[in-house]
Amino acid sequence: MTQQKLKIIGERVNPGFRSTKALFDNSDIDGIQLLAKKQQDAGADYININIGSRALTDIGFMADVIKGIQDAVDIPLSFDFPSFDVQKICLETYDQDKAGGQKPIINSISEHREDMMDALSIRPSKVIIMASERLEDGAGKANKKAEEVYGVARRLSERLIDKFNLDRDDIIIDISITTLASDTEGLIRMALDGMALIHNDSDLKGVHMIGGISNVGMMLPKKAVDGSPLKNSIERAFTTLACPQGFDMVLGTPWHDYSPLQEDHFVLNKFKEIIDLKGLDALRALRSLYKL
What we know:
Radius of gyration: 19 Å
Largest sheet: 8 strands, parallel, barrel
Order of helices and strands: EHHEHHEHEEEEHEHEHEHH
Number of domains: 1
């Protein structure tokens, strides 16, 4: 089984990783540079930057991180902050020449954060839009149906194309990947079905689709019943099913293997079974993947 190579946005400059949080806590720019370089050397196409809540209180450190990383790597950056003010600092600090002329990524815009689109006036950028939530009665609501995912993707894409003149190649749709271990509502199946609707819409031809791939295998043990590495096999099971539906980017760890699994792979076939179930049936099927 073959597939087009996934583009990888390196996820490790994020305080959710304990070792990275220590770098932030110590303002260790040298260590952050090494981490960014390690991701590029492992095949990352972009480096995602998220320094957590410190971005709201320490603008100088935010700028130092961006400058330091751009001194260490020559690939573009993705700025992962749901705040226009933080995005403004990031986009103004970004040196496009150091990234080979490539645009940065604004991560991310949702229907209830459309003001983030105004960041496109600061500099030309690619944009990640959140298709996992919609605006309803003035509030953000989590999507539970494939048609809702598709509807958000279409509405936001149309707005970016019509009002901001973005090319479809500059639009990246985050379909949101749920953790398999807690998915009792069929949200992984929803994401896959939503991708299929987006992929089959000729008006959206050329947009990209992405998800935080590390989420899907969280809270699972290391090994499956057959002895295979469970978490990574679950990640690969997802990409095996998602890539034919237009999924072509991951927010992930560049040194992980995201290649497709063979059709007869034990974890792939159990994954297919589990994502078609809900409630306790889904949890029971999940437990059959590993030894208790």
